[in-house]
Specification:
Structural class: alpha/beta
Largest sheet: 7 strands, parallel
Strand content: 15-25%
Radius of gyration: 22 Å
Oligomer: single chain
Number of domains: 2
Bound molecules: cobalamin, iron/sulfur cluster
Helix content: 25-40%
Amino acid sequence: MRVLLVSANREHIPDPIFPLGLAYIAAATQHAGHDIDVADLCFGRNPLARLQQQIQTFRPEVVGLSIRNVDNAAYPLTVDYLSLHQDVVDAIRAATSVPVVLGGSGFSILPETFMQKLHGDYGISGEAEDLFVALLDALENGLDPGNIPGVLTQHRENLAGLYIKLPGRPSPRWNNSLHPARQPFDYGRYIRRGGTGNIQTKRGCIFKCNYCTYPLLEGHGFRERLATDVVDEIQTLLETYGPHPLFFVDSILNFPRGHIEGICEEILHRNLAVRWSCYATPVKLDRNQAQLMARAGCEGIDLGTDAVDDDQLRRLGKSFNAATVFRANRYCLEAGLRVCHTLIFGGPGETGTTIRNTCRAIRDMQPTAVIAMTGVRIYPGTPLAEQLIAAGKISRSDTGLTPTFYIEPDIADFLPGYLQQQALETGNWVLPGMEPPLLPLSQRVLRALGISGPLWRLLRFPWMRQISRSKFRRPGTSWGIPNLRRKVL
Ligand code: B12
Ligand code: SF4
């Protein structure tokens, strides 16, 4: 069949991100013998007109639409992408009447709601290499894809909750050396404009942080690729596109023990010069691991710290305490790794004391950068959403498409100003949703100057800290960002 794969994402903040998930779908579809074309709407003017022209020329028999983001998950300057997705579906419908299949991480967080809002013919929640191919086979053979378990259709009812109960169905094709098909896309443009390429080494997460969607999207167990297969892919990427930094998109790269070690050893064994960064957990992050990662090209590590107060860590469902964070931070700095701590303030039970404890501890640790979220984005199906519903603090309808944030009422007035003060004093804090993001123009200039990798690494330089500080000297302005739909509880 002729299959057109469309990536709807046009977000350039913090960077344009190569649509890795759709590239996996493209690879699986090609391997199954179908003819594919891709339409990536990320760059250029008038992408919808281009998309319609492409539909006229390619005459697809099926269109697959990838929906990566629901919103920017930041408060109070929340950006909601629903209308953008509606425009894309309208443009497709105006140009063709073939079935439209919805998928992607954003779609998978709220599959039924997206199906209703966007009137997709079919939808697949979670990883979809196998199911998408099965769906195409059904269409090709005149069968009803609605009979395939896991495929959503417009005509089925009572599917509510099905995908939350069946998260991250393993896709055998994925572990089986299926590499994403990057060639049909302009991967090079993402490296130039976005500063990093991306690669996935495993799926799933065994931890139970109570606000987190990753286990729902990818499954509660780890499914790892072989180190040799991962490094084959890295090597091919460097040979094909030249040297460029990579981001490992795994939920946490350094757990379970042995996985990243195997990859690092293989990188060193092949003498590959690759710079990379990742998300990591402080759990079991010891001196050996940090040093091996540094030797194998790791230039920045984004620790999912969330808080540095034992009570607050427990309430967020984290599997470590403040002492573990201190230790992990020290090992990383000793190994020469740049560290960014991601923090979440305002969750249930947060008090002025827990906020101050976290801020004090973070300042003591002297990381390169801090990304601090104000409020917890509440996602359906997460333990936190269920807990708040059971406690009567939110209703189920609060976990729908309108981005909803929980801020503990007692500290709601104090929190934003206090975080802005931290940012002003230190200069290395980034407050998504509370400050103007790096404007696309400045981002372009930095990339054009050849600065690659995550931009938070620049916060080690006094001049960048000065620029960062100056953003907090005009509190109360909206910096021209549309304050779209969102709710605070
Ligand atoms: C790594 C990551 C990042 C990195 C990316 C770095 C890089 N160079 O790639 C960074 C830190 C930069 C980042 C930024 C952002 N991110 Co992010 N990110 C992720 C993460 C952890 C992995 C994404 C990934 O690559 N997965 C691997 C691929 C293979 O999986 P996949 O894309 O899901 O694709 C599979 C399926 O979805 C499906 N599929 C995909 N497309 C299609 C199409 C069809 C037709 C079908 C049938 C199926 C299908 O099949 C694929 C293969 O199995 C996810 C969480 C997660 N675990 O998914 C969040 C996630 C995607 N991010 C999210 C968000 C919000 C953002 C930001 C907006 C945050 C911000 N304010 O800055 C930005 C947006 C950036 C942008 N330009 O779009 C949200 C999106 C949901 C939401 N709330 O809207 C997620 C889901 C996390 C969350 N909060 O739940 N992110
Ligand atoms: S926050 Fe990180 S460690 Fe916790 S469940 Fe999510 S991905 Fe796993």
